[in-house]
């Protein structure tokens, strides 16, 4: 039973961690090399990784999606989609066309690089063709610039405080309401076992 309980707890923590890792914003310092538009077919469970009204209207559809191709300072490539977020995740991004224009204007070459902090959320997986969603661009002086995720720090701190508060409230409620009832049940069971042992002795 203990193994089942810990397995359940670890599973819940893994789901929460994955949800937060996917949803919370991240920033990468990149050089933009190209922007383009491509028609995508949406089918199956991977539709949850795409935005737009089409996904709510039908499980199978296709539409044009904007993309931004980038390269990091170490040479790694990363492709971002550029879609409005509607109401989830709650970034309320409705400036996809403006951001695509900014990205197209920020294209630079390897010989004369221009670096940008690209804010995004989501995951990149080439096997199932999912892309992180670009949220905003901000020019930076160097690819070595240190970016401190202040939003994530504040958000996770508040979330941890809420979690600790809820845990303490539950602990106090359990100690005041549930534990006394369980103790009464245990005492009643002990008394019943004692009465049975007297009424029906083994010898």
Q: Could you characterize what this model shows?
A:
The protein is of the alpha+beta class. The protein has 2 domains: about 25-145, OB fold (Dihydrolipoamide Acetyltransferase, E2P) (Beta Barrel), CATH 2.40.50; about 150-203. It has helices at about 1-25, 55, 95-105, 150-200; strands spanning about 25-40, 60-70, 75-80, 115-120, 135-140. A hairpin with a 4-residue loop joins strand 2 and strand 3. The longest helix has about 50 residues, at about 150-200. The protein is elongated, with a radius of gyration of 27 Å. It starts with a helix and ends with a helix.
List the SSEs and their pairings.
Blueprint: H1 2-23, E1 26-42, H2 53-57, E2 61-72, E3 77-82, H3 96-105, E4 115-121, E5 133-140, H4 150-199
Antiparallel strand pairs: 1-2, 1-4, 2-3, 4-5
List key phrases describing it.
203 residues, alpha+beta, OB fold (Dihydrolipoamide Acetyltransferase, E2P), 2 domains, five-stranded antiparallel beta sheet, 5 strands
Instruction: Predict the CATH topology of the largest domain.
Output: OB fold (Dihydrolipoamide Acetyltransferase, E2P)
Number of domains: 2
> How much of the residues is beta strand, in percent?
15-25%
Reported CATH architecture of the largest domain:
Beta Barrel
Overall geometry: elongated
Please state the structural category. alpha+beta
Mean pLDDT: 88
What's the total count of β strands?
5
N-to-C order of helices and strands: HEHEEHEEH
Strand order of the largest sheet: 3-2-1-4-5
* Largest beta-sheet details: 5 strands, antiparallel
What is the CA-CA span between the terminal residues? 35 Å
The helix content, as a percent range, equals: 40-55%
* Uncertain ranges: 54-59
What's the CATH first level of the largest domain? Mainly Beta
Please tell me how large the radius of gyration is.
27 Å
The DSSP helix count reads 4
């Amino acid at each position: 039973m203990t193994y089942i309980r810990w397995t359940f707890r670890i599973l819940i923590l893994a789901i929460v961690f994955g949800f937060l890792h996917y949803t919370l914003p991240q920033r990468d310092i990149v050089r933009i090399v190209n922007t383009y538009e491509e028609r995508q077919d949406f089918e199956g469970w991977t539709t949850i990784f795409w935005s737009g009204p089409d996904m709510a209207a039908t499980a199978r559809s296709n539409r044009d999606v904007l993309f931004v191709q980038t390269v990091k300072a170490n040479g790694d490539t990363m492709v971002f989609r550029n879609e409005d977020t509607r109401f989830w995740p709650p970034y309320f991004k409705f400036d996809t066309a403006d951001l695509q224009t900014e990205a197209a204007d920020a294209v630079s070459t390897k010989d004369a690089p221009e670096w940008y902090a690209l804010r995004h959320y989501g995951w990149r997986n080439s096997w199932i063709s999912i892309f992180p969603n670009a949220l905003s661009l901000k020019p930076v002086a160097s690819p070595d610039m240190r970016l401190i995720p202040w939003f994530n720090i504040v958000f996770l701190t508040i979330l941890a405080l809420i979690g600790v508060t809820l845990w303490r409230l539950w602990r106090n409620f359990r100690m005041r309401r549930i534990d006394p009832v369980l103790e009464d049940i245990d005492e009643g069971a002990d008394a019943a076992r004692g009465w049975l042992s007297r009424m029906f002795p083994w010898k």
